[in-house]
Design a protein that fits this description.
It contains 15 helices and 32 strands. By secondary structure, the protein is of the alpha+beta class. It has 3 domains: 242 residues, BirA Bifunctional Protein, domain 2 (2-Layer Sandwich); 131 residues, YbaK/aminoacyl-tRNA synthetase-associated domain (YbaK protein, Alpha-Beta Complex); 98 residues, Anticodon-binding domain (Rossmann fold, 3-Layer(aba) Sandwich), CATH 3.40.50.800. Strands 4, 8, 9, 10, 11, 12, 13, 22 and 25 form a 9-stranded mixed β-sheet that branches. Keywords: Aminoacyl-tRNA synthetase, ATP-binding, Cytoplasm, Ligase, Nucleotide-binding, Protein biosynthesis. Pfam families: HGTP_anticodon (PF03129), tRNA-synt_2b (PF00587), tRNA_edit (PF04073). GO terms for molecular function: aminoacyl-tRNA deacylase activity; ATP binding; proline-tRNA ligase activity. It catalyses: tRNA(Pro) + L-proline + ATP = L-prolyl-tRNA(Pro) + AMP + diphosphate. It is found in: Cytoplasm.
């Protein structure tokens, strides 16, 4: 195997990270010469990055092929018509890059490929005898990210492995989904990632069920609620919990209005002279679900989860109502709102409030609130419905056992969906079943962010000196360097490099005319798993220095044995 000579390689390392780099992976990928920024959320992948990303892709291909996946390569440029067939042309909004050709035709750059693969299936699949099918590709995707940041974690151009399963029925989809789940677990394990699979929100993808694969890291932008006792885990967009029952008093026979001039926040109502604890307040929020008003009610000390509201309403998109939209509907401005006997719009109430009494809420009159509110009597009895709306908090009870939930930041590295017939029905992708009846194909969709795997590995595996790569995705398995300029050291190092190559070990040969300290520092920064140093003293005794990047002590290894030792280490870790 051919070694790469450092003196001839393009490895533009930096002593300092860019000022705007906030997370470890961004800092280290730039400092180690893996990436450079071309524009906001747009990166150049330099040779070291390409080597690591190619290894990630190879692992993905092996595991996809192992479950019967067949690789495609479909266009990144899509005509608008195909997205309009599924109804998602308008749903994607500003996240989609859109353009017109010279004839005025509408196109987009693909964020994902459900529509495109469904079109292939519609045109080519005719019978249940052709199913199941598992198709995938590793291809560039585009997203007009409003706030690109964190290096490769939030970008506008990225590489995704997207796979799609096609089955004749739900049972087949269940099998395909589990095949993908197991394949994902193997992929992430081989890439050296500690991960957790969690229940997730399907969002604009649709479908009946989805799971995300998450890496626990402070660099993550998602929140996961997990129970260490029973291993329940869910994105807080879908997570539920047990809330301790409140000891409410009997309340009043009917709500009573009282003046609250200038009180427009939960916190203000907690203060004297009113002194109403947040847990006894009803927080009433006005949202627009597909531009239709909906009222959401949660406890005063709880937060509304917009993803849960979207699920509860079945809306394509939800947003907070603009301040000027609220008074015509509610009769008051934000801060004095309530849902007591309110029937002018759909009202959703979090289940934790169902049996609460003696609560306080806005009176839908500026400067006034209501006390003595019985949620079941005064809200639910007038057409409001219960729906999971609140964001769970750390310390709340697990919904599956007697344990307590932990909530932590996490980074999504993969997402799998049971799409069902969402796309096949809208795009008329059908096959004949065993009884000769036309039925819509039952689909699944499965995505992995290739660059996110690289970034996540670095977030998990780094120290003060640089990256600590897992062997399977390191740009090189080993680096060989000399501890002096003497010709005999160079000759011995060349022989070690050749022996390593014969064993299939990928080597970066640091042949630069630099001090040993500089070479050691760069080796640590690049994160190469094995460091082999050839020095005068050791060579005189027939040895070389061996050190593992992952916290290993320096060992002396006979020159004739080092290649075998390295090969064994590579095989054991990949």
């Amino acid at each position: 195997m051919h070694a790469v000579r450092y003196s001839q390689a393009f490895i533009p390392t930096l002593k300092e990270a860019p000022a705007d780099a906030q997370v470890a992976s961004h800092k280290l990928l730039v400092r180690a010469g893996f990436i450079r920024q071309l524009g906001a959320g747009i990166y150049d992948y330099l040779p070291l990055a390409k080597r690591s990303l190619a290894k990630v892709e190879a692992i993905v291909r092996e595991e996809m092929d192992a479950i019967g996946g067949q690789e495609f390569y479909l266009p990144a440029l899509h005509p608008a018509e195909i997205w309009k067939e599924s109804g998602r042309w308008d749903v994607m909004g500003d996240n989609m890059f859109r353009l017109k050709d010279r004839k005025g035709g509408d196109y987009c750059l693909g964020m994902t490929h459900e529509e495109i693969f469904t079109a292939v299936a519609r045109d080519e699949l005719r019978s249940y005898r052709q199913l199941p099918q598992v198709w995938y590709q590793i291809q560039t995707k585009f997203r007009d990210e409003p706030r690109p940041k964190s290096g490769l974690l939030r970008v506008r151009q990225f590489t995704m492995k997207d796979a799609y399963s096609f089955d004749v029925d739900r049972a087949g989809l269940d099998r395909s989904y589990e095949d993908q789940r197991r394949a994902y677990e193997k992929i992430f394990t081989r890439c050296g990632l500690d991960f957790v699979a969690v229940q997730a929100h399907s969002g604009s993808m649709g479908g009946s069920e989805s799971s995300e694969f998450m890496v626990r890291t402070e660099a993550g932008e998602d929140l996961v609620a997990a129970c260490p006792r029973c291993r329940y885990a869910a994105n807080t967009e879908t997570a539920t919990s047990r809330v301790a029952a409140e000891a409410d008093g009997p309340g009043l026979g009917a709500p009573e209005k009282f003046a609250t001039p200038g009180v427009v926040t939960i916190e203000a109502l907690e203060q004297a002279p009113h002194s109403v604890p947040a847990r006894r307040q009803l927080k009433t929020l006005v949202y627009m679900a597909d531009e239709k008003p909906v009222i959401a009610v949660v406890r005063g000390d709880q937060e509304l989860n917009e993803a849960k509201l979207q699920t509860a309403t079945g809306a394509v998109a939800v947003r907070p109502a603009h301040p000027e939209e609220i008074p015509p509907l509610m009769g008051a401005r934000a801060g004095s709102l309530g849902a007591v006997r309110f029937t002018r719009a759909r009202v959703l109430v979090d289940p934790s409030l169902a049996d609460r009494k003696d609560m306080v809420t806005g009176a839908n009159e500026d400067g006034f609130h209501l006390r003595g509110v019985d949620v079941r009597r005064d809200v639910l009895a007038h057409g409001a419905t219960l729906a999971e709306l609140r964001t769970v908090k750390a310390g709340e009870g697990c919904p599956r056992c007697d344990g307590t939930l932990d909530v932590f930041k996490a980074l999504e590295i993969g997402h799998i969906f049971k799409l069902g017939t969402k796309y096949s029905e809208s795009m008329k992708a059908t096959v004949l079943d065993a009884e000769g009846k036309q039925v819509p194909i039952v689909m699944g969709s499965y995505g992995i962010g290739v660059e996110r795997i690289l970034a996540a590995a670095i977030e998990l595996h780094h120290d003060d000196n640089g990256i600590v790569f897992p062997m399977a995705i390191a740009p090189f398995h080993a680096t060989v360097l000399t501890l002096g300029p003497e010709p005999e050291l160079r000759k011995a190092a060349e022989e070690v490099v050749a022996a390593l190559g014969k064993e299939g070990v990928e080597v970066l040969f640091d042949d630069r005319d630099e001090r040993a300290g500089v070479k050691f520092k760069d080796a640590d920064l690049l994160g190469i798993p094995i460091r082999i140093a050839v020095g005068k003293k050791g060579l005189a005794a027939g040895n070389v220095e061996w050190k593992l990047r992952k916290g290993g002590a320096v060992e002396l290894v006979p020159v004739g044995e080092v290649a075998r030792k390295a090969a064994e280490a590579v095989r054991a870790a990949t």
